[in-house]
């Protein structure tokens, strides 16, 4: 049976950025099979009807970089200096276990879905637990096990993530909604040898690589001093840059680096919320977008950016880049929504399947209601989505043809046990002194 969504203003994000007011979208199984005006209603009389009540229908948003389970650490040590090395790594080493990763991921998945995110890219430890939570929820995700040069929460050996990744990739390779990946933490936390092993695994199984790149100023300075190359040029020199790589941040990059990223078709996650809060610097996202790079938006972990939804990022992208460049014409709202949807899909090399509302694409759809007081009036749909809306305006979310959020509540997960588990985890975290 088909599902027909009517009484919605369809923001297609197709090549022409067509908008269909009072539009209709028809879904069969997991695919979009028709898109048009209300005349379609008489063609699909047997369908189950969803009345969008004059809301805005957009493609599901893509969170191109996060660490879902880190939601358990949200609001902790926000203002600590050199937080990654002095705070996060010791905390994770002592407290992160399977139960924490699973409960955290389940909570984060619910938060993302309620905010209209239908696909996310994740790097963490015990990534199999994240996969279980994602599968339970029915969400779409690219999931990578972390590879790092010190004993990690799920391995006593440095680079234990390499072996874990092989097992993890084989386990999830045939999954419909989960794309397993491998996630070297960063260039400066991996040896050249381990990065080459990552590359081998990625090529052998044809899976993506997720990695933080050029996030830290010290990283940039260290690579220039040691190799006389930027981190981006260094990764290219060892063959790491290709279209399977999705790099998060790329803050410290040169014009030459952007040319390399374009030539190698590297995916980019721009994480302006986490970058600004961490005082890390501003990635040249305007140049990246204009230059036609594969750039999407990410939140980073909730310990870095505190939110996991992409709507919050959209407003920040506009505001930060207009401010830094002192130019309000930069990044019109339609370009920002494109990065949140098609851009993220391109970064993850999933643009043939998701990112826009077009016949033949996977039915990952979001209805944003326009009835709430903060949503009126509506003159420009893109501006409303980027600057007026917030995650609480997301009413209905469909992933792969299945309704996971309806009337602003999550349908596919029982949250009561997670809330309880999260309370237990919080107690452990509070009793731990870094
Ligand atoms: Zn990150």
What is the tally of helical segments? 15
Q: What top-tier CATH class fits best? A: Alpha Beta
The quaternary organization reads as: single chain
Describe the biggest sheet?
A: 8 strands, mixed
Strand segment tally:
16
Please state the average pLDDT score.
Answer: 96
Low-confidence stretches: none
Rough outline? globular
Cα-atom Rg, whole angstroms? 21 Å
Helical percent range? 25-40%
Strand order of the largest sheet: 3-2-1-4-13-14-15-16
Explain what this protein looks like in three dimensions.
The chain has 434 residues and is an alpha/beta fold. It has one domain: Alpha-Beta Barrel (TIM Barrel). Helix content is 38%, strand content 24%. It is built from 15 helices and 16 strands. The chain has helices at residues 83-95, 98-114, 127-137, 161-172, 192-205, 217-227, 231-237, 255-263, 272-277, 285-290, 302-305, 310-324, 333-347, 381-388, 416-430, and strands at residues 2-11, 19-28, 31-37, 48-59, 61-66, 117-124, 140-147, 178-184, 209-213, 245-249, 267-270, 294-297, 365-368, 394-399, 402-406, 409-410. The strands form 3 sheets. Strands 3-2-1-4-13-14-15-16 form an 8-stranded mixed β-sheet. Strands 5-6-7-8 form a 4-stranded parallel β-sheet. Strand 7, helix 4 and strand 8 form a beta-alpha-beta unit. Helix 2 packs parallel to helix 3. The longest helix is centred in the N-terminal third of the chain and has 17 residues, at 98-114. It is globular, with a radius of gyration of 21 Å. It starts with a strand and ends with a helix. 53% of the residues are buried. Zinc ion (ZN) binds at residues 65, 67, 212, 248, 300-301.
């Amino acid at each position: 049976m088909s599902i027909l969504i009517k009484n919605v203003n369809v923001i297609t994000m197709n090549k022409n950025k067509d908008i269909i007011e009072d539009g209709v979208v028809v879904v069969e199984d997991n695919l979009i099979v028709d898109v048009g005006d209300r005349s379609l209603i008489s063609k699909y009389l047997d369908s189950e009807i969803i009345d969008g009540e004059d809301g805005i229908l957009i493609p599901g948003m893509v969170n191109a970089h996060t660490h879902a389970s880190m939601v358990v650490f949200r609001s902790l040590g926000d203002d600590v200096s050199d937080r990654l090395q002095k705070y996060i790594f010791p905390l994770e080493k002592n407290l992160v276990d399977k139960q924490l990763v699973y409960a955290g991921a389940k909570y984060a998945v619910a938060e993302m879905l309620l905010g209209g995110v239908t696909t996310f890219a994740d790097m963490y430890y015990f990534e199999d637990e994240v996969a279980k939570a994602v599968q339970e929820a029915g969400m779409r995700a690219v999931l990578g096990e972390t590879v790092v040069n010190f004993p990690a929460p799920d391995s006593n050996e440095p680079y234990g993530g390499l072996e874990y990744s092989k097992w993890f990739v084989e386990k999830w390779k045939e999954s419909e909604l989960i794309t397993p990946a491998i996630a070297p933490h960063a260039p400066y936390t991996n040896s050249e040898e381990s990065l080459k092993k990552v590359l081998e695994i990625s090529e052998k199984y044809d899976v993506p690589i997720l990695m933080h790149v050029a996030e830290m100023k010290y990283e940039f300075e260290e690579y220039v001093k040691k190799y006389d190359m930027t981190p981006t040029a260094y990764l290219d020199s060892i063959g790491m840059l290709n279209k399977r790589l999705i790099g998060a941040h790329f803050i410290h990059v040169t014009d030459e680096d952007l040319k390399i990223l374009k030539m190698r078709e590297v995916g980019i996650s721009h994480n302006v919320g986490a970058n600004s809060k961490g005082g890390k610097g501003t990635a040249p996202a305007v140049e990246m977008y204009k230059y036609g790079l594969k750039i999407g938006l990410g939140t980073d972990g909730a310990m870095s950016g505190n939110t996991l939804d992409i709507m919050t990022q959209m407003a920040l992208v506009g505001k930060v880049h207009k401010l830094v460049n002192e130019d309000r014409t930069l990044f019109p709202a339609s370009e920002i929504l494109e990065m949140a949807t098609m851009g993220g899909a391109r970064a993850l090399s999933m643009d043939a399947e998701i990112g826009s509302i077009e016949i033949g694409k996977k039915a990952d759809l979001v209805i944003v209601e326009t009835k709430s007081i903060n949503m009126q009036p509506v003159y420009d749909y893109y501006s409303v989505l980027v600057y007026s809306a917030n995650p609480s305006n997301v009413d209905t979310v469909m992933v792969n043809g299945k309704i996971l959020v309806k009337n602003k509540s999550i349908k596919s997960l029982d949250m009561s046990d997670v809330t309880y588990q999260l309370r237990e985890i919080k107690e452990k975290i509070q009793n731990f002194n870094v």
